[in-house]
Amino acid sequence: MDELRLRPAGPEDLPGLAELFLRARAVAVPAMPPGTHSDADVRAWVGGWDLDAWDVWLAEADGRAVGFAVVAGDWLHSLYVDPDAAGQGVGGTLLDLVKGLRPAGFCLWVFESNVPAREFYEHRGLVDLERTDGSANEERAPDIRMAWPGSDPLVFFRRLIDEVDEQLGDLLARRAALTRAVQPLKPDGSRDRRRERRIAEVMAVRAPALGSDRLARIVDAIVTESLDAAASTGGDAAASPGGD
């Protein structure tokens, strides 16, 4: 393969990138689940990429595109290499480019089953952050959020923590409001410990690293403090000590 050349993609490059994407995804099965869209839909989707909003870079060799990367915000959305150019350093070169484009760090999603891709990223300094059951992606396949923490990992991870804490604050406020609202509807006002345990077990499916016992303690604290907050504000909720 001739010397690799990297350059931003233009609108005229998008049809070729769509074909590269389709070839790479087809060859990756079963490490990656099959795509859920028709080839025509994929071509239309790639052809409509907003090159002003996304950083789309392609790698060229021998006068043709052999790989590409798509970055938007602090996410690496796509990194694909033409199967005929696999194992020749194209992916690593594109990933190094992305690190240069996002020196403060970035995240990406990779399918849990895609062991070659996971090893590729791990060997280049990316770390696992979270795992899902795949219910939020189109393929319904378990996936992993990975991250390159950039030049200052402490700042990067604290930024992600701040984002989660904002979401957690909103969720806790909603949970406390619902706990308060349900109290007048309960006939005996007692806490349903079995229900709380089931809640923890369901949560453990989404957060296996914590486990149901730890999550049971967290649920207990949330219900206890929500009831205490409701009691301190007075009203109907203060009359009932029961959980939800």
What does this structure look like?
The protein has 244 residues and is α+β, with helices and mostly antiparallel strands. The chain has two domains: 5-150, Gcn5-related N-acetyltransferase (GNAT) (Aminopeptidase), CATH 3.40.630; 156-239, no CATH class. It has seven helices and seven strands. It has helices at 14-28, 39-47, 90-101, 115-122, 153-182, 193-206, 211-233; strands at 5-8, 55-61, 64-72, 75-81, 106-111, 127-132, 143-148. The protein has a four-stranded antiparallel sheet with strand order 1-2-3-4, sandwiched between helices. A three-stranded antiparallel sheet has the order 5-7-6, covered by helices on one side. Strand 2 and strand 3 form a beta hairpin. Helix 1 crosses helix 2. The longest helix is centred in the C-terminal third of the chain and has 30 residues, at 153-182. Mean pLDDT is 92; it is low at 235-241.
